[in-house]
Amino acid sequence: MIDIMKIKYTISLLFVLLFSLNTILPNTIKPVNITIYWDSSLSLRNKDKNRELEFLDYFFQKYPNCDVKLVTFSALKNSEDVFNVRSSKWDQLNRKLENVEYDGASDFSLIDIAGSGDFLFLFSDGKSNLGETINKLYTPRIITISSNKNVNKKWLHETAYYNKGYYVNLLENDISSSVRDILEKKVMSKLIFIDSKNAKPNGSKLIEGIVSDTYGNPVQDAYVSIKGKNKSTITDQSGAYKIAIDTDDILIFSAGDMKTAEVITDLDNLINVTLTRKINDLDPIVIKSKSAEEIDMVLIGDKKVNKRSLGYAVSNITSEDISDANRTLGESLAGEFAGVQLGNNNDAGQIIIRGFSSFVLSNHPTFIIDGMPLSRNESDMDFIDPNIIADITVLKGLAATNRYGTLGNNGVVLITTKMASLKKDKETKEEDSKPKIVYKNFSSPLIISEEKTSGFVTMLQSYNSVTDAYNHYLSHVDNNMDNVKYFIESASYFFDNGDKQKGLSVLSNLLELFPKDTSVLRVLAFHYEKYGLSNYAEKIYKIIMETSINDTQNYLDLANIYFKNKKYKESISLFKKITNNKIKEINSFSGLTPQINNDYRHLLSYRDQTWNVTNIKKSNFILPKHKLRVVTEWSHPQSEFEIQYINPDKHFFTLSHTKKDNVNMLNKEIAEGFLSDEYVLSDLKKGTWYLNLMVPEKQASNIKKPKYLKVKVYTDFGTTNQKLQTHLLDLDGTVKNQVFTSFTIN
């Protein structure tokens, strides 16, 4: 007879044992090692953070025991903490992520791939401004996760692909299926981009086209994949794609919340696809053609794109359309563009593209010359010689602001100049470009002006601690995204109060917000140098050169910052190319020749036996000696200023950089792309000299495009007694004049 009591006892014991195992086992399984890099740069302030936290919560349900190292970073590594997740409980980690502050540019070189455990999670938009990840031979599986619209999908996808990981776009992918794909180690498709080198692999044909939405707007980062094959590509910002296929392949077009389209390729070479939203009843629209020549490409200043994909109105003329009889920019524009109105006498400075839109604010378009935006006001724009113009493009229509933001709300005039010498003005003699020294009496007091404290700094100074001041700064960032000076002046407060990390981070926002605006980037580089961060200045000068490869100034700046950072090999190499005219993008460095010669010889005067100085002209080893050498560098091509040199007897002469006095030189600067000059003086009266900065009264300040002047003053240049002063001056903040320094001539 079965003992009922024993059976009940045994069953109860089994339940207790199972419950104990269920409680104990999860905590005895070896934890998964995860490193999370959490991008806290400014561009991620508006991401879907809740969606990212939901992803982690679901992941920890599948992996209940994890040892997590969390690194938050932007321009610098902001924090590093370790958390132990047990039984799917991750409250401390969650609270930490909830309180992350988003500020600064991003630097992916801070990501340490080696030794990052079983997984490396990177939560980011894939946009690094200051540095890229360093590839290592052995890496963990890298999972890239994004939750905002504006991302570098190509980088996120390829980083995951080449590290046996997975890319999760939380705006497009379901969390549960994404985590399942990660756990099952699903292999992502390989992105292949067609260029001239791999245009048509053997046995395949090339398909290209445009992917757009139902409004005709280009769909960027749409996936174009081959069904059943581990091969795909993504569309660029104009919606264009190219992919090599085999006969009878089927293409799959997919993007975010849009319906997926499958297209049989047949004999077609051109396939344009219009994707519809999933909430729409319409099916995707496919337009095929046997020829790809139907794509109408148009120049929009810095690149060519498909005209149909733009989504806004664009008109374009080239140098062939500009008559030799045209003497001004206004005459070149007159009658060439529909809906464009010029001022009296074809004044380009008073151009209106779409009619008046405001009775208070400016109604004039933004002029962008060789990628450099000029101030939007009614100033004279006719200093630009038509003979140096290669191309003019006018962007109009409300959607143009998608490309240039608030700069485009009145339209944009894009001007590309020829990289050649300007026409010679027969009425101008060669000696007019040389400064004529005429002394006058200086009647004002010789008192060196102190730097004025801005309203932003005054507000931050009212707080009892740097932390409170930083919180105040963060609370006003959203209202000052287009205010360059907000970041410059706020950063100055943190530098002056000893918090270099916050100062650097605040300044780096300019790179995050204005990544292609070289005038703003020059301001950023100037300030990095001011605060002794020349390694960061080097990064900015590299970005400027890559953005504007046809501007001579950028090569000299980079060669000099290499020298300053004691990278002598790189500096010599670049100076060699400059002096031998071996840079293919540049026709002539003539406007910078005196500076280049003095800077190169100055560099070579530091040489020792370890330097490789072969194939350098002997003349470059002879360093000239000057009592005074003054180098002026300005941030914006429209910068106008005068510097008065005041001798010990209070007599002065003036060297001018204004359109009124030097319009031909300003034209040459724009044509060759240089933003600096030097003045070398030897026969000077001994004693104390002063420099007084003067700016034209009509030069309006602009918080979006501030103008700064860097002045380097060398005394006894080329001798063992050489001294250098460097001053960074705010041209917009100078009311009329400012005595900014003194020096002694022995």
Structure write-up:
- This protein is an alpha+beta fold and 746 residues long.
- Helix content is 26%, strand content 24%.
- It is built from 17 helices and 31 strands.
- The strands form 7 sheets. The chain has a 6-stranded mixed β-sheet, sandwiched between helices. Strands 7-10-9-12-13 form a 5-stranded mixed β-sheet, with helices on one face. It has a 5-stranded mixed β-sheet with strand order 18-21-22-19-20, with no helix packed on it.
- Helix 11 (500-513) runs antiparallel to helix 12 and helix 12 (518-530) runs antiparallel to helix 13.
- The chain is globular and about 120 Å long.
- It is found in: Cell outer membrane.
- Pfam families: Plug (PF07715).
- It is a multi-pass membrane protein.
- Residues 307-412 form the TonB-dependent receptor plug domain.
- Keywords: Cell outer membrane, Membrane, Signal, Transmembrane, Transmembrane beta strand, Transport.
Produce a short descriptive summary.
This protein is of the alpha+beta class and 746 residues long.
